Amino acid sequence: MKTRYLLSLAAVSVAAACQVQSASWEAPVGPSQSDFGGVGLLQVPTARMAKEGEFSLNFRDNDQYRYYSASLQLFPWLETTVRYTDVRTRRYSAVDSFSGTQSYKDKAFDLKLRLWQEGYWLPEVALGTRDLGGTGLFDSEYLVASKAWGPFDFTFGLGWGYIGNSGNVKNPFCEYSDSFCNRGGDNTAGSINGSQMFHGPAALFGGVEYQTPWQPLRLKMEYEGNDYQNDFAGQLEQRSKVNVGAIYRVTDWADVNASYERGNTFMFGVTIRTNFNELRQSHIDSSKPAYDPHPQPLLLQSTVVADQLTDLKYNAGLDAPKVQVKGNTLYVSGEQYKYRDTVEGVDRANRIVMNNLPENIDTIRVTQTRFNLPQVTTETNVASLRQSLTGYPLGHEQKLAQKRVDPVDPGATEQGLFIAPERLNFNLSPVLNQSVGGPESFYLYQVGVMANLDYWFTDHLLVGGSLFGNLANNYDKFNYNGAPSDSSLPRVRTHIRDYVDNNVYVNDLQANYMGQLGNGFYGQLYGGYLETMYGGVGGEVLYRPLDSRWAVGVDANYVRQRDWDNMMKFNDYKAPTGHITGYWQPEFVDNVLLKMSVGQYLAKDKGVTVDLSKRFDSGVLVGVYATKTNVSADEYGEGDFTKGFYISIPLDLFTVTPNRGRAQVNWTPLTRDGGQMLGRKYQLYNLTSDRDIRWQ
Predict the structure, then answer these.
(1) How far apart are CA 17 and CA 289, in angstroms?
(2) pLDDT digits (tens, 9 = 90+) for 575-594
(3) Distances in whole angstroms, Cα of residue 405 to Cα of each of 331, 344, 385, 459, 545
(4) Are 37 and 111 within 8 A, CB to CB?
């Protein structure tokens, strides 16, 4: 009896210790990805979330399927996943002349929303959906809870659709309506069929993940709710509903996975990851200008200012800098080309001009421009700045007397020196255009080199163009003319194969007249060959109050389609196109921009485009967009509506010197004609980003 009592006491003690540990559970090496992408066990999800900003690329392979997925923890409470599934046992199309021997590809988008975090007693709980807006091959909904107990993390959930195909429990929503007991057939590719959510069979699922004493290794076991009897790959034998697997973390950024599923199938895979919040600039920054606390006050002498101008350009990053004096104010202006954080450039400029500051100057105004558009003036009190640079007495620290105001132009001044701007600019850049998941070929690409040449005739008139050299592409496989789901819309984008067949062509050649209109308004007029497929004329006006969370712009264009056989000519297709666009950064969520455009598109369809983007601490920008117009799904063709996502990466994450350049990767599931915007080279909202200190 005594031995039994001691054993029971020991068991309770271990359980209590495990429970205390679980109150703030976090996997020592972070949550792992499931077969479908997104944090989970093997075939089933868990309620766990990765660290905000984590981006994972996943590959899994077995006899029936290959899963390619990318998962991003967009917010601490929201996981997003995009996935391509290669169904190895099915052809993409019964028409071999169209898709050849390509196996079937299923595109899917998943979401998982955390309802509440794990507490001392309560588990972590999440609600999720798979294959949202896909063909419905794997569409599922689930409610799942996870609770840690020492090195074990237990998961229990209820799934509908694919996850719940075995129907081991009655769908609880059937009590509300019999319609919930049945689930419809396959969806149209690209459509969102919300009416079928939480319908059909339901099943319980669960499992456990065990962190072994050897930290790189974790073991997984799950009981799944799918029976694979109605699987798209064919009726699959399931000898066991229990799947087992192991995950080994090779490095901080890579996992390898192996599992044995259905009692008869091996699955292998890899995951590579990074975190967009934790990426850091790799350049070795130049030191900030030294400040001399006892400078010799001088008039604006050319020899002194020449040195200051050089420092302003190469240290503060202000191109074509200008220094002027008017009354008791010293004015500095230039285009910030070096630092994404423009506050850094202003700080350096202030340090530079504080040395040898002319007498009686009590205010410094630094004005930043971009494309000769004045953006913002930072006004700093000299006495406050001097005290900030020399150090405050202990206990008497003060905030620097500095503020951002609308651009201030001193006009003509008695004293002023500058470095003249370079009016001719030339550069070469690599280009990758791509389309993923099309029926003709899984991956269509075009690789080339773009030569760009611009010349400023005046401070407002910019004339320039770009010449594209085609190095390699496989768009000869793009066979839209033979597509089984041809659209009835005008061919405004699907002639892409005809354009990229040209080895060398003028991509754009246009004149732009840009200017600040005052009171937060900016405008531009443009005309010429505006993009690869269209030329014409247009204009844009933007209202963007300084440091405001919102802005609004209007663009109007009249364009004509360029002739792909001779791209300096035009064919007969013409279209008016333009949009009213609102921009909003919500106060309740940081670093998010919502952009909504309403207007007419190139195919003369009318509708709305919604673009939602998130900026992470590293400056990486991730966005998703969707366009819905007044054309029906049948008129649009395969895909139902236009959508895609993009990742914009600051180049200074990879360079040894700071710069403001970016590289953007776009993902568009299909090239279709509905909901297509004109590809304008310059957009005023992008050109005025320095107006907002939050969005750098």
Answers:
(1) 55
(2) 999 999 999 999 999 899 99
(3) 14, 17, 17, 22, 10
(4) no
